[in-house]
């Protein structure tokens, strides 16, 4: 009995040490990210491989110079990126031919890739010129959320769209999000004409949604991806409240004003950054429109069972950061 008692006490002691160590790690990391929303970096420059000149990087505080910016985060996407870029740029070019007022840029954020992603991305800059296609390089992998944040903060569009490098959502579906944003702005009386003039200054967000495909996804996906999907629903409910059925679709559009508020405050870098965006939208009372989009699962997903641990970690950081007031929300862009 004494031996069993000692073993139980030892296990409890080890468990207590692990829990206390984990709590300490969460507190330390939460404090470390306290000022992450203060963008202290020197202005980046874009490399023009044709002229070898450096092009100054814009910032989200600057006035919009393009109608739309498309931000594509890419980590080891050498194989899947070309098809996505071909489809995306073809759509943008065709639309700009039909509408002379339509201007665009594609920003590829290479998130510390180890393969030929950088080479592929710069091939497109050479072909389509640095005014239309730009590349941001991150020295090491920091996560999809951080890659998107970086692209958003250095874009020029009135409207800003994030989309995945795998091309899971057809790029022309951006018109669904765009039209709903414009319609809402007009319905609120914030836009009085048929043009898009002024849309950059009206904070609105549109989330592409796969909720209508959920039953089919549950039948065809691997168990851990279904677990993650259901887990994310719970995460959003606990962390940000109800209102958004699908936070994880990598197809979201922001007006420039909304992006300025959200991405200057975003702290989570990986799987839960979408949940933080929902939380921040509710804080700033930015309307979120959820719109069904065409979506198909593309082979090569980077989601794995280990992603669950990262989800729990980021959820703990978010809860600690906002509930304790360690993370303050900047309203300078309001």
UniProtKB/TrEMBL annotation:
It is a single-pass membrane protein. GO terms for molecular function: dolichyl-phosphate beta-glucosyltransferase activity. Its EC number is 2.4.1.117. GO terms for cellular component: endoplasmic reticulum membrane. It is found in: Endoplasmic reticulum membrane. One of its GO terms (biological process) is protein N-linked glycosylation. Keywords: Endoplasmic reticulum, Glycosyltransferase, Membrane, Signal-anchor, Transferase, Transmembrane, Transmembrane helix. It comes from the Eukaryota. Belongs to the glycosyltransferase 2 family. This is dolichyl-phosphate beta-glucosyltransferase. It comes from Artemisia annua.
């Amino acid at each position: 009995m004494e031996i069993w008692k000692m073993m139980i006490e030892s296990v409890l002691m080890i468990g207590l040490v692990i829990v206390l160590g984990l709590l300490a790690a969460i507190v330390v990391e939460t404090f470390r990210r306290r000022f992450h929303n203060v963008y202290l970096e020197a202005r980046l420059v874009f490399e023009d491989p044709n002229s070898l000149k450096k092009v100054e990087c814009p910032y989200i505080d600057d006035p919009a110079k393009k109608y739309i910016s498309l931000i594509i985060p890419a980590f080891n996407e050498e194989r899947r990126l070309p098809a996505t870029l071909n489809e995306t740029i073809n759509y943008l070019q065709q639309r700009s031919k039909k509408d002379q007022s339509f201007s665009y840029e594609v920003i590829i954020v290479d998130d510390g890739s180890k393969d030929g992603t950088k080479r592929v991305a710069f091939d497109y800059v050479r072909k389509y010129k640095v005014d239309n296609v730009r590349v941001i390089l991150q020295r090491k992998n920091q996560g999809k959320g951080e890659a998107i944040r970086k692209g958003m903060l250095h874009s020029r569009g009135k409207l800003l769209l994030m989309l995945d490098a795998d091309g899971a959502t057809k790029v022309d579906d951006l018109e669904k999000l765009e039209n709903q944003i414009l319609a809402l702005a007009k319905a609120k009386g914030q836009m009085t004409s048929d043009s898009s003039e002024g849309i950059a200054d009206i904070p609105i967000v549109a989330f592409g949604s796969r909720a209508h495909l959920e039953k089919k996804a549950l039948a065809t996906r691997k168990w851990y991806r279904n677990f993650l999907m259901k887990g994310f629903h719970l995460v959003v409910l606990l962390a940000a409240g109800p209102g958004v059925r699908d936070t994880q679709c990598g197809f979201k559009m922001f007006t420039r004003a909304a992006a300025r508020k959200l991405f200057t405050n975003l702290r989570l870098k990986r799987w839960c950054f979408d949940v933080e965006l929902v939380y921040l939208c509710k804080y700033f009372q930015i309307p979120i429109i959820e719109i069904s989009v065409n979506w198909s699962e593309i082979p090569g997903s980077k989601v794995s069972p280990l992603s669950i641990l990262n989800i729990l970690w980021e959820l703990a950081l978010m809860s600690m950061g906002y509930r304790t007031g360690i993370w303050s929300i900047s309203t300078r862009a309001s």
